[in-house]
Amino acid sequence: MTAPVVVARGLRKSYGDLTVLDGVDLDVAPGGVLALLGPNGAGKTTTVRILATLLKPDAGTAHVAGKDVVTQAADVRASISLTGQFAAVDELLTGVENMRLMARLAHLGSREVRTRSDELLELFDLTDAGRRVVKTYSGGMRRRLDLAVGLLGRPQVVFLDEPTTGLDPRSRNALWDVIRDVVAEGTTVLLTTQYLEEADQLADRIAVIDHGRMIADGTATQLKRAVGSAHVQLVLRDGETERIATDGTVPDVRRILADVERRGVAVDTWEVRSPTLDDVFLTLTGRPAEPTEELVLATQES
Ligand SMILES: Nc1ncnc2c1ncn2[C@@H]1O[C@H](COP(=O)(O)OP(=O)(O)O)[C@@H](O)[C@H]1O
Ligand SMILES: [Mg+2]
Predict the structure, then answer these.
(1) Would you call 284 helix, strand, or coil by DSSP?
(2) Which of 10, 39, 70, 148 has the most other CB atoms within 10 Å of its CB?
(3) How many CA atoms lie less than 13 Å away from 3 in the CB half-sphere?
């Protein structure tokens, strides 16, 4: 196997009595997409911030593109980009102006700036919007621009911290397409998410994190096999629930419902459910994912 581009070993981080990372190990192969999947408060952002050199671990080591994130932080920074939930673009500038500004900061030559930013705006479906000030953009457009800006310097590794949280389904799909394009360019991607479906759509490997510890690691297929497939959930008139596995196709769901009708089961409500993060946690830990209360600390994102 080729050497991983992102390697973390035994990362630990505490704030006072609160242990946030309790020995995190990670490997991301070059050109691969790893999803770090976990509920709110699991330690995803802390891990990404350490890998992106924004935060020092209390213990453990991490290398990105062969460089140590603590002792060679500047080298690491030169080969990565980080896009978070809160887009870091300037509201008062147009999309194109944001791109040009960041390109100059990334020390790209003026010809390269123009070609690369045009190419990225096109790729991200922002060519027309690029002439408007960012203030007028939707949430999804901002995220796409933020990601495009991050790609100007052709980073080897892209960190995406909950790239689609808070987006409507259409914007989420548009962003997924863009992320697939980034991957197709050969960029290594580490993304964090709370959605099993997102990890399944984008990642070739999924690492599940809970309370600062990795509790599972495998391909999307392996994880889904462990968790089980989609199912039809019936709530019966007596309040009992019944689950019947399905591949989610129309004929299969029709067959299941016809069978339920034939058995004369008194159904109150029914739905087709895909496995969720909760199902993953139930399978892996025997309990649902328990999001810690979201203490929004002003210092947390600074
Ligand atoms: N600067 C900080 N000071 C104190 N606690 C923090 C700080 N940053 C994060 N935490 C806590 O660490 C835990 C993990 O946070 P985080 O890595 O942001 O999780 P996630 O991104 O998975 O939601 C949470 O309980 C959070 O409240
Ligand atoms: Mg987070």
Answers:
(1) helix
(2) 148
(3) 8
